[in-house]
Design a protein that fits this description.
By secondary structure, the protein is of the alpha+beta class. The chain is built from eight helices and ten strands. Strands 1-2-3-4-5-7-6 form a seven-stranded mixed β-sheet, with helices on both faces. The chain has a three-stranded antiparallel β-sheet with strand order 8-10-9. Helix 2 packs across helix 3 (40-47) and helix 7 (195-201) packs across helix 8. The radius of gyration is 18 Å and the shape is globular.
């Protein structure tokens, strides 16, 4: 898509039942399957008490959406970005930048979200483009998946932390945790080239990757290690001790 199209996207706050229902429908269409990703009544209830819910609009068409709630994590006020989806390249990034500004204006220290560590392009986006770090490994966090994209796989997730001020995510995280030393590399965890294609071709092989990456990440991250980034060739995660 052209840069001009991204520039033409309007980011619109969800304030009505109709918009909440449109957001819910958009998420369901992106993920597929029979279940709602976020029920519209949940969106409607939580925006009433200050949740983050915005649509990326190109004219009358929804091309991106993001929904999150305020919370607390390691003693810091955070915005937990529960789900973000985009059908036009670049609009997801625009929404993340909007989230950052929204959080900063409200005195929030950081943004968190969960993501699949096996999806390499998401790792590149989160670690390289945004500058987030991953601070927890959450095995099968949402249970076995039923949507069309993830069907049959287990929902292991990394918990991302992204600073919203001028300090790095690592600096804000270490301050909150009482750490000061530079992180030391512990390991490199290789990722599959395309886990989504592999799920379709061989769910058994995809689950083997799931178990392998879990074995390499769960123990060190449970002990306090973080994923600080990716290798320069973008084929592996870098696990670091704090």
């Amino acid at each position: 898509m052209s840069n001009q199209l991204v520039a033409d996207i309007a980011i619109v706050e969800v304030v009505s039942a109709e918009q909440a229902e449109a957001m819910s429908t958009f998420f369901k269409e992106v993920w597929g399957g029979e279940d709602d990703v976020v029920p519209f009544d949940l969106v409607l209830a939580l925006i009433h008490v200050g949740a983050y819910a915005y649509l990326g609009m190109h004219g009358d068409t929804i091309v991106a959406a993001s929904f999150g709630v305020r919370g607390e994590f390691v003693g810091l006020p955070i915005l937990h970005s529960h789900v973000t989806a985009a059908t036009v390249p670049g609009t997801g990034y625009a929404l993340k930048l909007h989230q950052r500004d929204w959080a900063r204006e409200r005195g929030i220290a950081g943004i968190t979200w969960t993501f699949d560590p096996l999806v390499r392009r998401n790792c590149v986006f989160n670690f390289e483009k945004l500058g987030a770090i991953a601070v927890e490994y959450l095995p099968n966090f949402y249970g076995t998946m039923t949507d069309d994209i993830n069907r049959g796989d287990q929902s292991d997730r990394l918990m991302a932390f992204w600073s919203v001020d001028d300090r790095s995510s690592l600096e804000v995280w270490q301050t909150a945790k009482g750490h000061g030393a530079a992180p030391a590399e512990l390991a490199r965890v290789v990722l599959p080239a395309d886990i989504e294609a592999l799920r379709k071709d061989s769910l058994e092989d995809a689950l083997e990757w799931r178990c392998s990456v879990r074995e390499q990440l769960l123990t060190p991250m449970t002990a306090g290690a973080i994923v600080s980034g990716m290798t320069t060739d973008r084929t592996a995660l870098i696990v670091s001790a704090q």
